[in-house]
Design goal:
Length: 102
C-alpha cells in the first residue's frame, strides 16, 4: 500500500513539473516544443518553472509580433543609414585630401 502512495505522489510531482508543457500543448502553441525543452532544462528551479508557466499561459498576438518586426526593421534601417552616411563622409574626406594634395 505504501508503494502505491509513493507512486501516486511521484506521478503527481511529474505532472506538476511538466504542467507548463502540458498547458502549452493544450493551448496548441506553435512554440510548445521550445517551451517543453526550457521546462525540462530549467524547470527544476522555481524561477525557471514560473517563467515556463507564464510563457505557456501568455498569449502570442499578431499585433505584438507585428510591433516586434516593425521595431527590428526600424533598427536595421537606422544602422543602414548610419553606414551610408559614414561612407559618404569618408568619400568626401578622401576627395578633399586628393584635391588638396594635387
Amino acid at each position: 500500500m505504501r508503494a502505491f502512495f509513493e507512486g501516486l505522489v511521484l506521478l503527481a510531482a511529474v505532472i506538476v513539473y511538466f504542467l507548463p508543457a502540458i498547458v502549452a500543448d493544450a493551448r496548441e502553441r506553435e512554440d510548445a516544443f521550445a517551451l517543453t525543452i526550457f521546462n525540462v532544462l530549467f524547470g527544476w528551479t522555481v524561477v525557471g518553472w514560473v517563467a515556463a508557466f507564464v510563457w505557456a499561459r501568455y498569449r502570442v498576438s499578431d499585433k505584438r509580433l507585428a510591433s516586434v518586426v516593425t521595431s527590428k526593421r526600424r533598427a536595421l534601417g537606422r544602422v543602414t543609414i548610419a553606414k551610408i552616411v559614414a561612407r559618404s563622409r569618408q568619400a568626401r574626406a578622401a576627395r578633399r585630401q586628393s584635391t588638396l594634395s594635387a
